[in-house]
Amino acid sequence: MISIAIKYISVLRMNWIQALEYRANALVGVIAIMSGLFIEYQIWSLIFKAKGYETVKNFEFNELIVFIFLSIIIGQLKSSWHSSGEMIRAIRTGEINKYLIRPVSYFWYHFMMFIGFNSLYYIVYTLILIGFVFIFPGMIFNSFSTVLYFLPALFISIYISYCIYFIMICFAFWFGEVRSLVVSYNLAMLILSGQYIPIRFFPENILNIINWTPIRYLVDFPVSIATSLLTKQEIYNGFVLAIFWCLVLSIVGSFIYKLGIRDYEAYGS
Amino acid sequence: MVLRYINLWTAFFKNSLTRDMEFKMNFIGDLFIDTIFYGSMYFFWSIIFSYVDVLGDFNQQAVIIFLIVMYLTDTVFVFFFGSNTFTLNTMVVKGELDFVLIKPVNSQFFLSLRYVSSYAIVSFVILFFLLLKLLYDYHGQFYFMDLIIFIISFTMGILIFYCIEFIISCLVFWYRNFSVGGWLSSEMTKYSRRPDSIYKGKFRRIVFSVFPMAMITSVPARTLIFGPDIYLLSTQFLVTIVFLCLTRLIWIRGVKLYESASS
Fold it and tell me: Distance between CA atoms of A260 and B44, rounded to whole angstroms?
């Protein structure tokens, strides 16, 4: 067990070192967050002023901006353009062969790569969040318990997101190129996961559907915990459902992967 | 000279079309991406307009016209330049730029227009007719003069879009490897994907001048919605010229720095 853990931690470490080589990525990540937040700030300040709103869906203006700020950060941490692209290429070109003949799990190897590649963002965004807590006290992480709940919720969000990517990527065993599927998913999730508008603002019928999917646990759940919008009971219920989705997606992913490997002909290698 | 380059581009187009037809799933996949992109942006604005009736000068109908102009800008940009600008990073890293520089053709032209994304024609046709319908619904008639001026302003918007992407991709000459160029560019051009009326104060002046994001989509859209504004159009013309010259200068300077390290 320990040797397995060491093996995957080595993968994580390797990708971490690689990610630290490209520090400009973190700078662009910060620009992405700030520019996204700035645009949302402009839109919502115009709406609050134009309509004279005190609150929208129980959000005061400042609370809404903080919520969007956190949502953009979580949205970026759970996204994968790089790792998913690499995985698709590996299947298409036959590079996946090297994983098949080695004592490593393709799923966990790339999960560690996924985390390792994003590790630079984890560091930078954590610093931003710590700074935010001190500069604007009381806006996020009101109590230590919110931090304790937030961290596993964030981990679950990243895991669910990775599982969804993994399932989509496995279709490359049959279709060869599934880049468009992943890009479409990424684009749709920018809005649907609540990265730019809280999902509470969505029409009731769409929100009802989203509540029955894992999408809710990608961004909204961790951010709602951090901003103290959920009661303890809602947090516990949320965790139960989120873990249920982790299990379902892991099983589906593993099933599709096994089917895919059975059909895989290594034609690119 | 011009005819030679038109013939060359036609050859690029034929070659790209043949390639795209070889991989039909990619062709359909790219159309699928566009549909999702259009759908998600429309959904975003429909939620915004469930809380407000007007965003500055733009009401919901005007924002939908703005969105279609934005989609058209994106489509035309992708058609001509989309598959080219950020290949520069890989070329510089691998030293493949040598093969472009030794060709008896303007290297910036070759690099910017080599691959044509033919699938964008389908999106363009659909969006163009949708725009005409929306304009007719909005005004109750067609203003052909506005449409002609729009086409000119739209072209200038595309050129500014190209200049910004190309300048960002040229940063590879200074940073040696700038793989996040595409991401940075999409974050920069995000400002052009919102109606200019949301920007206030000094920042509004900035998006109409040194950081000309409002010149890409908002000015052409305004021409269609509110009619031509001579001041805005002449500023757009000036900004286009300045940015084209800047792009050329940066390219020439960048190529001088290129060391062909990995080739």
Answer: 36
- Positions in chain A short of pLDDT 50: none
Q: Which of A51, A187, A201 sits opposite B36 (nearest CB)?
A: A187
CA angle A109, A110, A113 (to 5 degrees): 100
Closest CA to A253 of A214, A221, A219: A214
**A173/A199 Cα distance (integer angstroms):** 34
Chain A contact set for B55 (CB, 8 A): 43, 46-47, 50
B25 vs A177: CB contact, 8 Å cut-off?
yes
The answer to whether the CB atoms of A47 and B51 lie below 8 A apart is yes
- DSSP bridge partners of B212: none
CA dist B248 and B243 (Å) reads 9
Q: Which of A35, A46, A184 sits opposite B33 (nearest CB)?
A: A184
Pick the closest to residue B90 from B187, B182, B188, B186 (CA basis).
Answer: B182
Q: How far is CA A191 from CA A19, A117, B18, B59, B138, in A?
A: 27, 24, 35, 21, 28
- Residue pLDDT, tens place only, A90-142: 888 888 888 888 888 889 988 988 888 888 888 888 888 888 888 878 888 88
Q: Are strands A55-56 and A59-60 parallel, antiparallel or unpaired?
A: antiparallel
Cβ separation A36–B47 shorter than 8 A: no
Spatial distance between the Cα atoms of B219 and B208, rounded to a whole number of angstroms: 9
Average pLDDT over residues B96-119: 92
The span from the CA of B161 to the CA of A251, in Å, is 45
Residues 6 or more apart whose CB falls under 8 angstroms from that of A261 comprise A100, A173
Residue type, B257: L
DSSP 8-state secondary structure symbol assigned to residue A103? T
Q: Mark yes or no for CB contact A42/B194 under 8 Å.
A: yes
Mutate to test the interface with B, among A55, A59, A187, A189 (most CBs of B within 10 A): A187
Q: What's the pLDDT at B79?
A: 95
- CA of B48 to nearest chain A CA: how many angstroms apart? 8
The predicted model gives B233-256 an average pLDDT of 96
Q: Rounded CA gap, B127 and B217, in Å?
A: 15
CB pair distance less than 8 Å for A39 and B194: yes
- CB-based contact B180 A25, cutoff 8 Å: yes
> CA–CA separation, B79 vs B74, rounded Å?
8
The pTM is what? Answer: 0.88
Measured between CA atoms, how close is A42 to chain B, in angstroms? 6
Q: What is the DSSP letter of B190?
A: G
Question: What average pLDDT score do residues B180-192 get?
Answer: 89
Contacts of B56 in chain A (CB under 8 A): 46
Residue B117: burial class (beta carbons within 10 Å; 0-12, 13-18, 19+): buried
